[in-house]
Amino acid sequence: MNLRQLRTLATILDKGSFAAAGDRIGLSHAAVSVQMNQLESTLEVNLFDRSSRPVALTAEGVRIARLASEVLGKVDDIRLEASGAKPSGPVSIGFIPTCVHHLLPRVLDALRRGFPELQVNVTSGLSGELAAAVVGHELDYALVTTPVVEIPELDITPIASEPFYVIGPAGIDAESDATLLRSRPYIAFNKRTWVGQHIAARLQQRGIHITPSIEIDSLEAIENLVADGFGVSVVPQRLHANPEQEKLVKIPFGNPVDTRQLTLIRHFSKPLSGIDSAIKTIFQDLPDNS
Fold first, then answer.
1. Are 188 and 227 contained in the same domain?
2. Beta bridge partners of residue 235, listed in sequence order
3. Is the C-alpha dihedral spanning 201, 206, 209, 215 positive or negative?
4. Among 132, 182, 76, CA closest to 142
5. For the segment 232-273, what is each residue's pLDDT rounded down to a tens digit?
6. Are strands 212-216 and 56-57 parallel, antiparallel or unpaired?
7. Does 57 share its domain with 197?
8. Which of 53, 126, 150, 195 has a Cα at 20 to 30 A from 100?
9. What's the CATH code of the domain at 66?
């Protein structure tokens, strides 16, 4: 039994399958299978039910995988302590409002598991406001829409790409996104936001000239207004969000579909530490879940 086998086992518990675990840790399905056969032989216990498809952890396998996660957490703590990189103070992270509800709990849960003693301070704001706070050293990190202009002070890590859709109330029959946009009053995302500016620019580039009847900075509110028949809009399909599909008609915006890019930003001058790598990994893992 070794740490690599324990890490693979813990990753299988986290990701749900050999294939997903292999993708996460950079091993082939066969290599994962060999490691787990070796671990079962060493422990003399059946960790997996191989009669199911895909192969699933047994109850004993789940218990051992959870213990493995705890052991690996302690090992990581030892490495951070030895390197002087163990976090000793609070970490501040900013989230744009469109990501707070769906992504914040996942990030906090991962940080709590990896760094149980870490104090995390969370701020919500528009992308421009959060970027300014990172530049001014008021925030350590922020999850924002990719800046519309270059900001030299920022270290930018791509996190996810969210496709845009034109949405309308259920029952509308539209041949294209442009037809749907012209069929009802237009509900616009606030142009003070980077995503609102992005959508307005794309509409102008495509020659779709529509005057907003309502302008608002909450995607949840826009979706609810559209579902209730107040108009149509353009919104990104938010990562991990589960909109009420039966209440909305959705048509991809553009061909190819236009997208919003989410990025994690930090100040270039901020000293790198173990927590930086951990936070980047947590955010980059977000798109991997279903």
1. yes
2. 165
3. negative
4. 132
5. 999 998 877 765 556 789 999 999 999 999 999 998 887 666
6. unpaired
7. no
8. 150
9. 1.10.10.10
